[in-house]
Amino acid sequence: MFRLFGGGAADGDRFHNGSLPWDKAYVTEMTVNGRPAVMRIYSARFSEPVVHQLKSRFEQMGAQVQVQENENGATGRAVFPDQSVGFLVLKPPQQPTQQIFVYEPTGERGTSVKSPVPEYRRAKVRTTISDDKTGTYLATLETTSSATETHVFYAGALQGAGWKMISPALIKNGTVSGMAVYEKKSRVCYVQATDRMDGVNTITILVKGGAL
What we know:
Layout: E1 23-32, E2 35-45, H1 50-60, E3 64-70, E4 73-80, E5 83-90, E6 97-105, E7 123-131, E8 136-143, H2 147-160, E9 164-167, E10 170-172, E11 175-184, E12 187-194, E13 201-209
Antiparallel strand pairs: 1-2, 1-7, 2-6, 3-4, 4-5, 5-6, 7-8, 8-13, 9-11, 10-11, 11-12, 12-13
């Protein structure tokens, strides 16, 4: 089976081969949809066309790339003949850098992961990524709710659970979309939701320790 990262956190990185103008932040072993996985996290300047760079690099490696993009980042998959690699780009407003998460399953399915934030019952979970060592949790969900309905739910539920909103989502013509950021003690939660033309919208949740 083709391995993007050689099958382990300590092995080589075939994806970032020096051709990308990104910094390598760190590599860790995580749980993706209940399966062990290797995740590499990169950072890039806010001005970099990261989604285009991701897509081009994966296509150079022989993958078919599926991507959903909006003004605050993107989610997607690179599908190889015998492997599927996921990725997420976060481009928080008013921040100098973007974060790129690339993750590759390395083992068999294990146990389910519990969300550290209130669950939106009108959404279906598509991907969960967790790391007990760092307290990082990432999920993508699909819903027919509008981005406004989604942000209204999370604003109420998170603040009711003790989170403080430190950066609201964009409000334009009465519609809420994009990314909102919350903080609770030493943890930060990003909530991203944007309306799509087909009416099936993607929600991205990232909870991590440390600063923005």
